[in-house]
Every structure is written in C-alpha cells, then in structure tokens.
Prior knowledge:
- Helices cover about 70% and strands about 0% of the residues.
- The protein is an all-alpha fold.
Amino acid sequence: MGTKTIGVKDDVYDRLKARKREDESFTDLVNRLLDEATMDWDEGFGTLDAEEAEELEQVVETSRKQTSAGLAERQQEALEELTDAEDADEAA
C-alpha cells in the first residue's frame, strides 16, 4: 500500500493534532474521523419533534395546494387558447 503526502494549513494541522490519540498515526486519525463522519442514509430519520413535524406537514400541504392551483390555472389557460384557436380556424 502506497502513501500520499497532502498539504494542510497550519490551523488544520493543529486541530488534527489535538484530536490525535497518543497511540495513533495521522492515517489512523483520518480513518477514525472519516468513519465517525460516515452516516447511514436513514440515521437522521424520525428526529423531528412533534411541533417541527407538524410545521413541516403544514408547509408541504401549502406547497402542494399552490402547485395544484397553479397547474389547474395553466391547464385552463391552455384549453382557452386551444378553443380560441379552433374558433379562429372555423371562422376563417
């Protein structure tokens, strides 16, 4: 297994060194930090409290209603334009 040399700013090095355990290398430290930072995709599910969940549901419902209303309005406008175009073709 090969090695790579990377450059980090002095303050980053100091922060890493402060977290490094006495018995671990910097490679071990980076591996440990990466393992700690790796999260399962579902780890955060179910963490909203009841109030936050209710607020989110309200926001989603409002968004759905606005989207639905916007779509219905655009559909109506498109139908009116088609009807007007057909009427114009018949009159010609």
